[in-house]
Amino acid sequence: MKVLFLVQAEQRAILDRLYEGIAGACDSCDIRWLTSDEQANLKRYFHQQVDVSKYDRILFFLRFKKEIRQWRFIRTLPNVVILEHDAYQNYIPCKYTGKFSAHYRRMPWVRIISSGAQVSQRLREEGFDACFVPKGYDQVLLSYQGRERDIELGFVGSTKSVAYSGRKALLDELGWHEDLLVTKTKSGEEYCDTLNRIRFFVSADVGMGEYMIKNFEAMACGCVLLAYDHGELESSTLGFVDMQNVVLYRTVDQLREKLSQLRADPELAQRIAQAGRLTAEEQYSFNNVGRKIVDVMQPALRIPDRRTGWLAWLGF
């Protein structure tokens, strides 16, 4: 399969290994790093830079804010697949509530690869060709170091933006009761070193409906992952088993109760950390995730129906 892969040149997260995993699973993969200006005018970019007849799939992994404004052009392209890590925002209170569905209704033949099992299910219930491939971690930048863990309880990452309001509220509440370190680091070595210092990593993806990338990163670095529970479908699909390879919770009280149990039984905590690390290494490296993305791209796509005018605006 020959793939044209469009990605953001100014991506905040370091996803090079994911791109390499996707490219390595294709017969050929032409990765194009689009600037903000190029993303803002895809019609011009394709006219000047792309011969669409050369590709079996055109894979979009661009900024949704830019993509959503150009649906009229995107729906004219053949063999489009959209990789989307933020579609959970379609179903939470934020500025993009419902906007992913509205965007996809204008080109319902496009295949969507979502990083949430429940999000994918809800999109399929709305009639879209949606597949699930989870997030993962960069196996080159992040790994287990076997060092002493001098931070007992911690979280590394952002608590800003409306989408993270539930995360901030939970961490603030937990911080009233426990000695919790909430910090930010530079990507790469500093982030890896910090994760390897944390014994219990608090993942607080409250209200998001799926497990964010930090869960897999913390597991791979040997933390005991204390993960907000997104329900049976999400957890079982990922192979997350409470008190075996992760620790799941729904409330701060439940989190503190399980944390007390782990403090009293260090061997149990160590077993969970080791099992979590093996789960991440065996299944959720970007190399493995990239292969899964290519696997779900391969089946035949839906036949386009490119009606124009008000029918397209209404999503019919």
Q: Can you give me a brief rundown of this structure?
A:
The protein is α/β, with parallel strands linked by helices. The chain folds into two domains: 2-136 and 289-314, Rossmann fold; 151-284, 3-Layer(aba) Sandwich (Rossmann fold), CATH 3.40.50. It has helices at residues 16-24, 36-40, 42-49, 64-67, 71-74, 99-105, 117-125, 165-177, 189-195, 213-220, 232-238, 252-264, 266-283, 286-297, 310-314, and strands at 2-8, 28-34, 57-61, 80-84, 111-114, 129-132, 151-156, 181-183, 198-203, 224-228, 247-249.
Question: Key terms for this structure?
Answer:
316 residues; alpha/beta; Rossmann fold; six-stranded parallel β-sheet; 11 strands; elongated
State the helicity in percent bands. Answer: 40-55%
Mean pLDDT figure: 94
Order of helices and strands: EHEHHEHHEHEHEEHEHEHEHEHHHH
Task: Compute the number of helices.
Answer: 15
Largest sheet: 6 strands, parallel
CATH fold descriptor of the largest domain: Rossmann fold
Number of individual domains = 2
Count of individual beta strands: 11
Low-confidence stretches: none
Taking strands numbered 1, 2, ... along the chain, how are they ordered across the largest sheet?
A: 2-1-3-4-5-6
Cα(first) to Cα(last) distance is 31 Å
- Structural class, by secondary structure, is alpha/beta
Classified by CATH, the class of the largest domain is Alpha Beta
